[in-house]
Amino acid sequence: MINSPQAGTEPYRDNTLGIEARVDDLLGRLTLREKIGQLNQRPLGWQLWQRRGPEVTLTETLDAELDRFGGLGAIYGLLRADAWSGRDWTTGADPALSAEITAMVQEQVVASSRLGIPALIVEEAPHGHQALGGTLLPTNLGSAATWRPDLLAEAFAHVGRELRARGAHIALASGLDLLRDPRWGRSEECFGEDPLLASRFTAAQVRGLRSEPGIGVVLKHFAGQGAAVGGRNGAGAPIGPRELDELHLPAVRAGIDAGAVGVMAAYNEIDGIPCVANEWLLTGLLRDQWGFGGIVMADLGAIDQLGRTTSSAVETAAVALRAGVDLSLCDEAYLSLEEAVGAGLIDEALIDRACMRVLRVKIELGLLDPPAPLPVFPTPRSADDLVAATPVLLINDDRLLPLGAPGRIAVIGPNADDRDCLLGDYVPPLPDGAGTTVLAGLRDRIGAGRIRHEAGSRLTEPLPGGLDCAVAAAEDSDLVIMVLGGSSVRHYADAFADNGAAELTGAVAATGGEGVDVAEVALPAAQQQLVEAVAATGTPIISVMIAGRPLGLQGVVDHSRALLWAGYPGPDGGRLVAELIMGDREPVGRLPVSLPRTSASLPVAYNERLGASRRYADSESSALFRFGSGLGYTTWSLGVPRNTGGPDLAGAVVSADLTNHSGREGRQIVQLYGRSRTPGLLPRRAVLLGFTAVALAAGATAEVDLRIDPYAIAALGLDAPSTGSAPAPTVVLWPSLDGPGEPPESAITMQG
Amino acid sequence: MINSPQAGTEPYRDNTLGIEARVDDLLGRLTLREKIGQLNQRPLGWQLWQRRGPEVTLTETLDAELDRFGGLGAIYGLLRADAWSGRDWTTGADPALSAEITAMVQEQVVASSRLGIPALIVEEAPHGHQALGGTLLPTNLGSAATWRPDLLAEAFAHVGRELRARGAHIALASGLDLLRDPRWGRSEECFGEDPLLASRFTAAQVRGLRSEPGIGVVLKHFAGQGAAVGGRNGAGAPIGPRELDELHLPAVRAGIDAGAVGVMAAYNEIDGIPCVANEWLLTGLLRDQWGFGGIVMADLGAIDQLGRTTSSAVETAAVALRAGVDLSLCDEAYLSLEEAVGAGLIDEALIDRACMRVLRVKIELGLLDPPAPLPVFPTPRSADDLVAATPVLLINDDRLLPLGAPGRIAVIGPNADDRDCLLGDYVPPLPDGAGTTVLAGLRDRIGAGRIRHEAGSRLTEPLPGGLDCAVAAAEDSDLVIMVLGGSSVRHYADAFADNGAAELTGAVAATGGEGVDVAEVALPAAQQQLVEAVAATGTPIISVMIAGRPLGLQGVVDHSRALLWAGYPGPDGGRLVAELIMGDREPVGRLPVSLPRTSASLPVAYNERLGASRRYADSESSALFRFGSGLGYTTWSLGVPRNTGGPDLAGAVVSADLTNHSGREGRQIVQLYGRSRTPGLLPRRAVLLGFTAVALAAGATAEVDLRIDPYAIAALGLDAPSTGSAPAPTVVLWPSLDGPGEPPESAITMQG
């Protein structure tokens, strides 16, 4: 049965009316079953169509769903291409076909809907759209190392244009999780360990994507997923409300303030309560306190997982809906919502509440406006400035870098000639020939004739004969560049859990990414043995780490004269790493996370509270490389800070003279830290309060002004429970070029 | 100025009156300064006197303090003897002198007090009184392995008699901290990782000590100290209220219900708020909700540590007093309380509130009654039954144990001939010749002629030539008994922090105890190398672990045919270990804590929530040996459980037939576990709900009845936030002889 919507005749289609009036009108026209349809997002999108060559046909997967509900809230992953979906360049939605596919599916959805309501097309875009031909950016941990949210916003504006050109509406962007335990496989998806970095970069992602009309952003994950115990994916976070508020919520606020249309309720529980069942979180905080009007989408299968706590799917559905989950994602339980209403477990008003939010987003994104042509798929845009700003130079003994006369170079290591290791998780297959490995980048830049290559080992296992070959190459060279680390590559033969995470029961080549948590974060033994064998040759070593999570690098540090941490830089990473090594560009990255020694000394975040700084009998408890640190090719000094702003913290401006003492132009990240003194609250050792990127000509001096970012305030704990007539809190402020350290004598004290 | 109290004339001295009337009367007679004196406990007790031979004289240390206040609340550690106090058998308070010393000091206190109020004499007694000649019990972790609180209560009754005979009033007993992170140096002080074990053993400690009239117990530590991040002593616990309530508070309730007169506010913060500043904890919960009328004593120096959050000592004092700290311990800040009242920071009513609690405890313990003679110091009482029940047999391949014909035995390892390693932290020096090492115990039991001994290595460092000697001994023997592990020994030359914890800046021989946290819990490399060298000889190995914390033992397991974990069993541990090995007694201990693989896979507690069970790519996340497990020399079966009690959880009685299939009498610990299904709350994998010890003759069968302990209920989370009209929670129950595992099919389901 196909119904033709009569465009423009009803108030809900009248885009001269306010959104709320349109939502109210539309909601009033829907039956209970139609409303429940708007709360469902069940079949995996890529299963809705098939492609033979350039010819696309729809499968029958969607028919039953549309018949059941008369319409549908959203469709997930229609264009997704990766090992889990099984879609590749032969079978998947390339840019040329994508808009056609979304149009075909959307047409079917609209036709099934009595009132002609389209579905939200929801796509993964954690660091670029996970679809064939999508621009791939560094994973978030790398982007955060730039300390340049402006560069990320520009890059994501292009991603938004790509998404819209293919007919998508919602980008799923991951930025809310903090990297508090590097054992977590999803470390790469975090903007580091700091709430301000996460806030600024999340906001940049949203701003960038939202600059494309018709694209909305759903932020994941809400909330506290980075606090999962043991770094185990989806495990619980037994944290308290202050820890949640100070560390894990600022980025949510920032993303919402920047215009996110939704948040994704996370897998984890907080202090026992799964996020999808957490009425305090999803309703009390998000709605009642923050006034957020967008949608809460459950993570994939998270509502069904709630079945571990209930006795039936009906009960599960009732718990999640009551808590505040508006839109499910591949769950069975939300099929039972009508039954839950019928059984009196929930009131229809709760269905209305959720449906209204879904409809509001659809209207806001223009789904019920007269159809407009999609923009054309944009030509590729260079992300070189972003990518080149991600690597962090951690060691540079005797200014070995940049390389002058390179001589004969041995490029050694499992990641040297691996393209996929550059990409991270949640990526589509690259086109043939795309991307540049570090080896290829060095050959292009230095000349293939100077370079000899040996893998030497696999990531976690020895390569038969590898050590001997590597040693021979090192002995025959003037310099070794070791390319080590990890990989989140997914192979099409891998096993996957129901939600697409790696399933460890199968063979997994990856050392990171969703589902690949590790106990020990120190460099795997096979690579460590390679480093030691090569070091024994005496040939100087420059180490390059391609890795999604912080690794324990003491064994690399001991044998390297230079060390460059490059995260997962994306497909062009190898070219830009070569340019950095040769000095065409200066390394300007700063660590967005503390690098640990081993797993045994976790946690090491710079902003743990003061009490956590006690050392162990057998090890330091501090980081091996601290948050905010990183070297360049230039030399700088920062003068004594002064407050040139107002007398209160919110209006303070910490100013200091910054000088580039070098003979070349350079860039710096000037960081502002604070430590509070709030009666009765143990302060964090330091809190990043602001930062700014500065470029200065050779020999130049400029005054740098730093303001306190509103999203950084929470971590100071100035709102701690008042203890009677105790004086107001104070805060000491100090700028730094290389991470927090202890407050110096020159720190500025202010009333909090 | 000395005032003679006129005993019996004032109401506060009339013990026919109720306590509250006496407290009110006494409080009304005190000046502000005198009241504040009752809130102070400042000089370290052992510094108040000197001994030359049998002659004791008072120092001038107390004079200024008594002059300042006209009396004093309490005196800490008057009789303490250990490396920190520097008191030994030459300079310390032996049993014969102790009563005289307390009487001399008390006389001075009373004389200085206008109303003749004595001080509380407060002594450390975590596993026996930390004074010369005090009975030493296993550390708490060992006692918990007995699963026999009744044995501990009997042993502590004797400790209470010793304390009273010396003139002490308050025993500081540590049992509240849960062992959630084995990196913590104080792991040995915990009754394991489970709230019910901690509750039952804490209550047993209190019951035992309180059976001696005039002895009160202050429980440490309140609260959540075992949740400290990274296992770092005194670090914060960023946990939420549910985690606190379910795991960390039941033992506090149990100890209070058993008659504790006070709790000690811990060093750590909970979710940012230091315990000594936590008004919600110390007043809202403890007083207003629980109705507790005893004292809150701060941990040693904890109030002054609060100075990290305030701008002055006056402010510090005001914050702590307002929060609810009644009695300081070696803090400067409480000297400023009068100034704080004068400055209007606190009202005198808060001074009264605290003083009233101190006075109440003094009156309750008889300090203001007519003096009565002290009991005589009791003759030693054997704790053999307790000590022998602590070791847990973890491996016994081919029933190697008990040893039949022992043959030639090599006893190897750093703990084989070390007496002090048996004792743990918080112990006085032993008398000359006291105690039995494992080596000595084996020689006594088996015959010295059969035994050859080599240390082989030190605890954390190789012993020069040690490996060769150990290998030679093993090669020349039919069997090796390796005695490995750790030690919390304190040497008189060690460095100590202000609170007596080990100071890691100095040389520390210990691998455990307060202040000696470690990053890596796996057996130290030196010992592991020793194990491997000895194993290479092919001589069968029985391993005995003397260790205060859970160690990662994979490397021992790989090479041992039997493995006995013995905690810190106390001075007679060596004798009883030998008896167990020879089969004079059966090992009956069960693990009170999960033994991890390495630090990298922490946490491993059996009662983490379901979500934490996900494995790592490079390791299991589970324990190597699970909570509740342990072998004996007998074979048992447990029949299908049935509920023979009431229909509701509180009245349920889980009954099952237990059979001893062996040819000898045997003992078992029957454990009852539950898992809840509470809508919207992720359950813990299992919760220990009850347990009982059973002895059965060879071949006998008996019905065992298990009831649900009220202190175990909290961890089920049945009080989770109601989600509308969702059905009531259910709980599945199952008995077990060897730890929780997964609920079996025979588990009983009940309404929660």
Provide the descriptors you would attach to this structure in a database record.
TIM Barrel, 6-stranded parallel β-sheet, homodimer, Rossmann fold, disordered N terminus, 3 domains, globular, alpha/beta, 752 residues, Immunoglobulin-like
Supply the CATH class of the largest domain in chain A. Alpha Beta
The largest contact between protein chains, plus residue counts on each side, is:
A-B, 88 and 88 residues
- Give the distance, in angstroms, between the N- and C-terminal Cα atoms of chain A: 65 Å
Oligomeric nature of the chains = homodimer
| Percentage of residues assigned to helices of chain A | 25-40%
Secondary structure: number of strands of chain A: 24
Q: What is the number of helical segments of chain A per DSSP (H or I, 4+ residues)?
A: 20
CATH architectural category of the largest domain in chain A: Alpha-Beta Barrel
Query: How are strands sequenced across the largest beta sheet of chain A?
Result: 3-4-5-6-7-10
* Largest β sheet strand count, sense and barrel closure of chain A: 6 strands, parallel
The CATH topology of the largest domain in chain A is given as TIM Barrel
Number of domains of chain A: 3
Derived from helix and strand composition plus strand pairing, the structural class of chain A reads: alpha/beta
Beta-strand percentage range of chain A = 15-25%
Shape of chain A: globular
CATH superfamily of the largest domain in chain A: Glycoside hydrolase, family 3, N-terminal domain
Mean pLDDT of chain A: 96
> What is the radius of gyration of chain A computed over CA atoms, rounded to a whole number of angstroms?
26 Å
